[in-house]
Amino acid sequence: MKDVKKVVLAYSGGLDTSVILKWLQTAYGAEVVTFTADLGQGEELEPARKKAELLGIKPQNIFIEDLREEFVRDYVFPMFRANALYEGVYLLGTSIARPLIAKKQIEIAEKVGADAVAHGATGKGNDQVRFELGYYALKPDVKVIAPWREWDLTSRSKLIEFAEHHQIPIPRDKRGEAPFSVDANLLHSSSEGKVLEDPAREPDSIVFQRTCAPEEAPDTPTTVEIGFERGDAVSIDGQTLSPAQILTRLNALGRDNGIGRIDLVENRFVGMKSRGIYETPGGTILLTAHRAMESITLDRGAAHLKDELMPRYAELIYNGFWFAPEREMLQAAIDSSQTFVSGTVRLKLYKGNVIVIGRSSPYSLYSESLVTFEDDRGAYDQKDAQGFIKLNALRLRTLAMRRRRIGA
């Protein structure tokens, strides 16, 4: 790909992507355009602009975008309508951010006339797959540069040596080997690698970025009410908020109550197992609330079918197939199920626990007259159950008679 003339780099401003920026200039002789996304990672992004300028990037080739609302509205919320959990546990905080970054990189590439895009994901992880599947789905002829699969800078010392040689500023606290790597956005933070690679070792307290320890959370529970419309959270305690504001508020509540910590050994798409520490405080609250809202507004058949589809949907997102037709087909079915998922859910947050204490909806399918143990005034004839049971038992009785006949 020596014919690459201009490349759009997903740029954080950190050591790794700054080295990548300079490496693209030296190895490819290409003009570099940087893209830095604000996904709610909680970091000041202007230093990334200054770092890019210091490394010779023209101001018109530096793109920094606040994507928090788009991220939650168009990616996080659709995923939560599905109650998506990878391998029954992981709320997909890293996975769901990658298609949006890829989409913006391709948009910028089209805008500036770039013929290539680049990312800083390693050759062992899932993110390289997620980024590149996104790139190719949106611009099939784009050239993709993945430096970690190409260069010989295979150690921290080589990275620092390259940075020093090219006069890339290295903060004092970045010179040593990082004890673990961190990825963060408005939905979650994840920590993995180095000291966390032994799954038998309990993580130190310094690993946790977003939550207090449950045992250190307040002794008094916090009560919160979340309002829903068509499957999406729209208010907290009666106050209407934007999608990003909703998640920000829930993150604060979850953080203070020690909610959302997960220690997971997962199966990566590339074939290996990895151990990660995930913190998803607001998302954990939102998932519990959404399921509670669905419990009174979804028909049994629709609810059970959703639960059957969910693992497949979650796996598609985890593996990077957000833009694939099968994910879009599943999304259409999931979104259709949310027409009447509206109302309010009350929760109690206490020392790492999210406890449902009430739910109501103008579209509720729950009928007190049907479930009551008191006189139901003819709403349900219990005698009807006899025929229902006998019909469902017919095949079981037939099988039992065959076993008896053959002496099995």
Please give the share of residues in helix. 40-55%
Please tell me the overall pLDDT: 94
CATH domain topology of one domain:
Rossmann fold
β-strand number: 14
Low-confidence stretches: none
Specify the overall morphology: elongated
Order of helices and strands: EHEHEHHEHEHEEEEEHEEHHHEEHH
Spatial strand arrangement across the major sheet: 3-2-1-4-5
Beta-strand content bin: 15-25%
Instruction: Quote the distance from N terminus to C terminus.
Output: 69 Å
Q: In CATH, what is the class of one domain?
A: Alpha Beta
Helix-strand makeup class: alpha/beta
Q: Please state the second-level CATH architecture of one domain.
A: 3-Layer(aba) Sandwich
CATH superfamily assignment of one domain? HUPs
Major sheet description = 5 strands, parallel
Cα-atom radius of gyration: 26 Å
State the helix count.
Answer: 12
Word description of this protein:
With 408 residues, the chain is of the alpha/beta class. Among the domains are: 6-67 and 96-177, HUPs (Rossmann fold), CATH 3.40.50; 182-298 and 340-360, Argininosuccinate synthetase, chain A, domain 2, CATH 3.90.1260.10. The protein contains twelve helices and 14 strands. It has helices spanning 15-28, 46-54, 68-81, 98-112, 127-138, 156-165, 243-256, 281-297, 300-319, 325-337, 368-371, 384-406; strands spanning 6-10, 31-38, 62-66, 116-118, 143-145, 181-184, 189-192, 222-229, 232-236, 239-240, 261-267, 273-279, 343-350, 353-360. Strand 9 and strand 10 (239-240) form a beta hairpin. Helix 9 runs antiparallel to helix 10. The longest helix has 23 residues, at 384-406. The protein is elongated.
